[in-house]
């Protein structure tokens, strides 16, 4: 092979890598589920709140991330009904991206800092929890995690006191555990099938209704051609996020108002260049749609398709046009 041919092949390979990377080489932008965003210093306290380091005994009730559950208990709550807790009264959770049949945990890295896996250890069942439902799963790092009815069990780092359930519904994929291993607050009609899904749509989830995973262009009379999700909701990006290195500025209470958009299904993307569409992984392990590598959100203050009430909010939130750019124009009055 002559040098010119070799050089042309090398150049072509570089071009392919550049096109594939798309987001400055970010693996998260390529939709890899193992991608971990860069640490966000604004979130570090949130991950550790209520939990000390290994063996430190600091934090709420001296509960460290590696603490075993002890004797599980069932607590009755007004909103969710019966919820499983550890022996200190801390709420226990399950993750929709895990599976129960077979048991498998998919929360690692930064996700496991926000959601400490509960070690199998000396867990035992109190009244209301079947002893036969307790088990364990071997995690990627070789440690053994407690399971309930096959579902890997976690705590939430932002639960700082016994009885807290701040993790309920986070990202539409985290739920307090019911005594049978299902999602707390669900009826029999929403019973899990063990594969990480319910038999019906979870209306309390990240987006809920069918079609939320779509992506298309809308001719908005106020802002022009902007991107919307499968329900016609305007998609926004946040100036405090950063695409590379990946940083999420909208966390905690921000997510009560600005909801991360679900990753788009390829078959449901219309009139949007494929190169602009990607998926990023949030610190809690959930995945979010990104446009031109920027995470995008929908605004709870938009009550109908075509609403752009979030445009320009706090000088930080902007709709996205069909070329992936933020829209800086103010809504027409």
TrEMBL record:
Q: Which organism is it from?
A: Streptomyces luteosporeus
Mark out the compositionally biased spans (Basic and acidic residues): 194-210
Spell out the protein name for this chain.
SCO0930 family lipoprotein
Keywords, sorted A to Z: Lipoprotein, Signal
Q: Where is the composition biased (Gly residues)?
A: 45-60, 182-193
Kindly indicate where the leader peptide sits in this chain. Answer: 1-28
* Highest taxon, organism lineage: Bacteria
> Is-annotated flag, keyword rRNA-binding?
no
Q: Where is this region: Disordered?
A: 25-65, 160-217
Q: What is the taxonomic lineage of the source species?
A: Bacteria, Bacillati, Actinomycetota, Actinomycetes, Kitasatosporales
């Amino acid at each position: 092979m002559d040098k010119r041919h070799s050089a042309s092949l090398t150049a072509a390979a570089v071009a392919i890598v550049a096109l594939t990377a798309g987001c400055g080489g970010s693996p998260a932008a390529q939709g890899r589920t193992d991608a971990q965003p860069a640490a966000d210093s604004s979130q570090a306290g949130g991950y550790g709140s209520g939990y000390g380091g290994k063996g430190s005994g600091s934090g709420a009730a001296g509960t460290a991330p590696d603490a075993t559950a002890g004797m599980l208990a069932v607590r009755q709550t007004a909103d969710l009904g019966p919820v499983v807790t550890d022996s200190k009264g801390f709420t226990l959770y399950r993750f929709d991206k895990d599976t129960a049949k077979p048991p498998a945990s998919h929360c690692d890295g930064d996700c496991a800092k926000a959601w400490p896996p509960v070690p199998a250890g000396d867990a035992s069942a109190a009244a209301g929890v079947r002893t036969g439902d307790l088990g364990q799963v071997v995690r990627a790092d070789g440690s053994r995690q407690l399971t309930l009815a096959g579902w890997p069990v976690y705590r939430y780092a932002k639960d700082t006191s016994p009885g807290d359930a701040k993790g309920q519904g986070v990202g539409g994929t985290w739920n307090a555990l019911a005594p049978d291993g299902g999602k707390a607050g669900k009826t029999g009609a929403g019973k899990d099938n063990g594969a990480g899904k319910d038999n019906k749509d979870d209306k309390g989830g990240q987006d809920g209704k069918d079609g939320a995973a779509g992506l298309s262009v809308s001719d908005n009379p106020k802002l022009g051609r902007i991107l919307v999700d499968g329900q016609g909701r305007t998609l926004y990006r946040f100036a405090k996020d950063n695409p590379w290195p990946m940083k999420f500025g909208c966390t905690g209470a921000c997510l009560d108002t600005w909801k991360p958009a679900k990753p788009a299904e390829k078959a449901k993307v219309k009139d949007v260049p494929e190169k602009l569409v990607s998926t990023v992984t949030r610190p809690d392990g959930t995945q979010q749609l990104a446009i031109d590598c920027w995470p995008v959100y929908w605004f709870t203050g938009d009550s109908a398709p075509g609403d752009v009430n979030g445009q320009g909010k706090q000088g930080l939130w902007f709709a996205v046009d069909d070329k992936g750019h933020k829209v800086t124009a103010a809504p027409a009055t």
